[in-house]
Amino acid sequence: MPVTTERLPTYFISHGGGPWRYMMAQSNGMYDRLAQSLRDMPRQLGERPKAVLVISAHWEEREFTVMAAERPPMVYDYAGFPEHTYHVQYLAPGLPALAEQARQLIQSAGFSARLDAQRGFDHGSFAPLVVMYPLADVPVVQLSLRAGYDPAEHLAVGRALAPLREQGVLIVGSGLSYDNTRRVGPSAAGPSMQFDDWLQQTLITTEPHQREQRLIDWQDAPAARVAHPQEDHLLPLMVAVGAAGHDETVCVYHEEGFFGGVTVSSFRFGQEGGV
């Protein structure tokens, strides 16, 4: 597949739980629809991106930090899973030049930023990426969240990173539209649907120039703090939306009854095949 030269869309994906891709045989089909949505992303792009920049919910630093390793290691940031999931490898290369460019763009927006040459892939990156690009032949760089979880800051960083879209870089916010591990199953059905309805309205039917303010005020949404007791899995969305500008939104994955009752969604910002 040729490397794209068009402006790419951005995505916010719900990345599932733990190293789920490596436990498909034990999941009784729970992840089939999520996996299908991730496999479809390369088709939507049309051509292979130069690189993927992932903002993972599972990496937080005091300042925005960019993974700069040429050969990123693995970070097994989960517990209680089968032994084999602590030995899986996703061997995509890093791209230090892109990491430095991202750092400079973030700094140009007025935020401190640094590089981390030791950081590896956490499951917020490798679990969905092994489905999207199973050959691990697309370079990947991760960007951390910034402690404090300020939505306006993460939206601004997304805007700063938007020029990378013109260079064939796919920007992916990897989190979950609903993330409350203490409330799953049937008891999650009501609050997850309420919050997802608000999210759909905010991202799809609200005018693009108004959606950022709604996202800044996300805690006013129905069931907001039930859906996200801590907003680390929501903040990657802010970066993806900031980088999207006024591009229109499409829901590319939606499921009700996930984990026995959770409503969950993923979104693309921008058109298929670039612009």
Automatic annotation (TrEMBL):
Keywords annotated in UniProt: Dioxygenase, Metal-binding, Oxidoreductase, Zinc
UniProt cross-references to SUPFAM superfamilies, sorted A to Z: LigB-like
Required co-factors: Zn(2+)
A Pfam family per the record: LigB
Molecular functions (GO terms): dioxygenase activity
Domain Extradiol ring-cleavage dioxygenase class III enzyme subunit B: 11-250
Family per record: Belongs to the DODA-type extradiol aromatic ring-opening dioxygenase family.
Lineage start: Bacteria, Pseudomonadati, Pseudomonadota, Betaproteobacteria, Burkholderiales
Gene3D superfamilies: LigB-like (3.40.830.10)
Protein name according to UniProt: Aromatic ring-opening dioxygenase catalytic subunit (LigB family)
